[in-house]
């Protein structure tokens, strides 16, 4: 999920449970603009950092422990990453989202659109 600076959902892609989120990050960032992209250590890859740089934004991503050369990040800006977590928590207030009752992806995506619209209206 991609969220704005206020923690409101902008875009999402539903993947299988065993698929890593970083595989969909370039698709979420496509045609987006901004000054910085905040993400956690799981999104630390050279390819994603290059995509973010091509956008003209700063990658505020802490380096993974396995990285040989640590890339510094803006720790003050990184403190605002909790806004995406807040976005997920707001979505989880809807029980149907939190437990994923829907068996078909198309139904689950439809509900995500409804929940996101309700969050934007707050």
Task: Outline the structure in words.
The strands form 2 sheets. The protein has a two-stranded antiparallel ribbon. The chain has 6 helices and 4 strands, in the order ββαβαβαααα. α2 links the parallel β3 and β4 (58-60). The radius of gyration is 15 Å and the shape is globular. The protein is mainly alpha-helical and 122 residues long. The protein has helices at residues 25-29, 46-55, 75-78, 82-92, 95-99, 105-121, and strands at residues 2-3, 9-11, 36-38, 58-60. It starts with a strand and ends with a helix. The protein has one domain (2-121): Nucleotidyltransferase, domain 5 (2-Layer Sandwich), CATH 3.30.420.
CATH architecture: 2-Layer Sandwich
The coarse silhouette is globular
Q: Using only CA atoms, what is the Rg? A: 15 Å
Characterize the main sheet: 2 strands, antiparallel
CATH uppermost class: Alpha Beta
Q: What is the percentage of strand-forming residues?
A: 5-15%
Number of helices: 6
Which residues form runs of ≥5 with pLDDT under 50? Answer: none
The side-by-side strand order for the widest beta sheet comes to 1-2
CATH names the topology as Nucleotidyltransferase, domain 5
Compute the average pLDDT. Answer: 87
- SSE-based structural type: mainly alpha
Distance between the termini: 19 Å
SSE pattern: EEHEHEHHHH
How many DSSP E strands?
4
- How many domains comprise the coordinates? 1
Helix content: 40-55%
């Amino acid at each position: 999920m991609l969220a704005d600076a206020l923690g409101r959902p902008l875009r999402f892609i539903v993947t299988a449970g065993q698929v890593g989120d970083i595989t969909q990050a370039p698709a979420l960032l496509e045609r987006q603009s901004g000054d910085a992209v905040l993400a956690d250590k799981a999104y630390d890859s050279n390819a994603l950092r290059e995509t973010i740089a091509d956008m003209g934004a700063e990658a505020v991503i802490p380096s993974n422990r396995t990285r040989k050369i640590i890339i510094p990040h803006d720790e003050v800006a990184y403190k605002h990453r909790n806004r995406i977590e807040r976005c997920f928590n707001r979505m989880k207030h809807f029980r149907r989202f939190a437990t994923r009752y829907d068996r078909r992806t198309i139904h689950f995506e439809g509900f995500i659109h409804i929940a996101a619209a309700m969050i934007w209206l707050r």
